[in-house]
User: Fold this.
Amino acid sequence: MNKYKYLIIICFFVFSFSISKVYANILDLPLLGKTIYLDAGHGGKDAGAIVNNLKEKDINLIIVKKLEKELNSKGAVVYLTRNDDYDLASTTVGRKRSDLYNRAKLINNSNSDIYISIHLNSTTSSKWRGLQVFYSSVNKENKVIGEVFYNTFKNNLSNVRELKKENSYYMYRNIKIPGVLIEAGFISNPSDNYILRSDDYQNTLVNNIVNGVISYFNKWKS
Assistant:
């Protein structure tokens, strides 16, 4: 009889250990079951803004690929509108509109939980600088996501500009899935231009975006 008691006790501890290990693994994967679409702006013939030989399309893609890796490590399924140097245009006439239309179509057809579009800002004045989050009012969740990202950035990064509603951008007003546009900095500003090339800044930005995504889904659960 004692032999069976010991066997039951051993089985209980093994089961408890296995459950604890599974639970710990789940805690390490806070985005398990979530699908995220990442959009690296511009690409191919469309370089975006270019200042001091720095091309917007290149930085957008670098940030998106780093973001993909980090989101995957947290359990998310991640899709990219592009994973190399090309655009998504399917016509030569009205190429830019075609590119934006196809990006929006991909994201809408994906049934993703959220999308994040990465761009860089540029103006004729070199004094403007800082990261900024834009959202459209086409989906009520866009503002919520924008606020979560803004608060995350504000608490951890310098030169974060105010969250802004923007309904004039063709692509974002045609995306039904919730998400935001993140302008990672002003390529036209010397300081931003410098840090945008830096692994440290890119990694810090990516970590903050990932933390923002996690915070949003935790908020959504509650």
In short: The first helix runs from residue 2 to 27.
